[in-house]
Amino acid sequence: MYEILEKEAFSDVTKLMVVSAPDVAHKAKAGQFIVIRVVKEGERIPLTIADFDRERGTITMVFQEVGKSTMHLGSLQPGDALASLTGPLGRPTEIENYGTVICVGGGVGIAPVYPIARELRAAGNHIISIIGARTKDLLFWEDKMRAVSDELIVCTDDGTYGRKALVTVPLKELLEERDDVAHIWAIGPAIMMKFCSLTTKPFGVTTIVSLNSIMVDGTGMCGSCRVEVGGQTKFVCVDGPEFDGHQVDWDLLLARQRIYLPEEKLAKERFLAERHACMKG
């Protein structure tokens, strides 16, 4: 059993949980992910590790309540326990001293980009970070990102905080203004990572993305998370989750993410109906 030690709500839909998982925390590295189950018979949910504390033996995860399983997860409180937590999974971020790097976090992608920026800075890189969200209420960890960045740019789509712009706008400006950017990480919704990759491709700067394809077992057995990268089939769970964004077939990835939308909608409606009935009872 993996006990929830802390819970924080960043917004109505964005939640943070700190979970006791000593064995996972001991081996976790930036860029890796975990797979959790809220209940034994529940869906397996892949979540990129937002932070880890080896001494305390904890894993921090940040997620948005978008479907039945994540809404169920968001209903848990400190003292409750997850049925399972498997990890760390996937290949960790390749941390080197590249020089000047840009770390872009969009929406909930701010969480997984944080430990990457922290490790890159510890390796001696000059960190320029860009974080953004649709609106101010969906932004979080500005202070944490500022602490691990040499420069930080904050954007909101609607202009309610920071600069009114998509993250691709300052990203393009930086590449036009500077010729020393050696590497870029962009993590967030698939559509955001697609357009970050399209923005950086003309400049020839390696752009690493963390893919969030549909996943079941997380160990390379089922093939559900397959994506096309550089014309070859890859499994996000064992070959990734990080890939060269310039090589990803984004249209195929986005199409595969929509496969189970009707089933996901039905499951969410049933969960909400059951919860409403319980509250009335």
Biggest sheet: strands side by side, in what order?
12-11-10-9-13-14-17
Low-confidence stretches: none
Overall pLDDT confidence: 94
Series of secondary-structure elements, N-terminal to C-terminal: EEHEEEEHEEEHEHEEHEHEEEHEHH
Question: Assembly state here?
Answer: single chain
Strand content: 25-35%
Please state the structural category. alpha/beta
Q: How many E-type strands?
A: 17
Separation of termini?
29 Å
The dominant shape is globular
Secondary-structure arrangement, i.e. CATH architecture of the largest domain? 3-Layer(aba) Sandwich
Please compute the radius of gyration using only Cα atoms: 18 Å
CATH class of the largest domain: Alpha Beta
What name does CATH use for the topology of the largest domain?
Answer: Rossmann fold
Query: Domains counted in the coordinates: how many?
Result: 2
Give me the CATH superfamily of the largest domain. Answer: Nucleotide-binding domain of ferredoxin-NADP reductase (FNR) module
Instruction: Sketch the major β-sheet.
Output: 7 strands, mixed
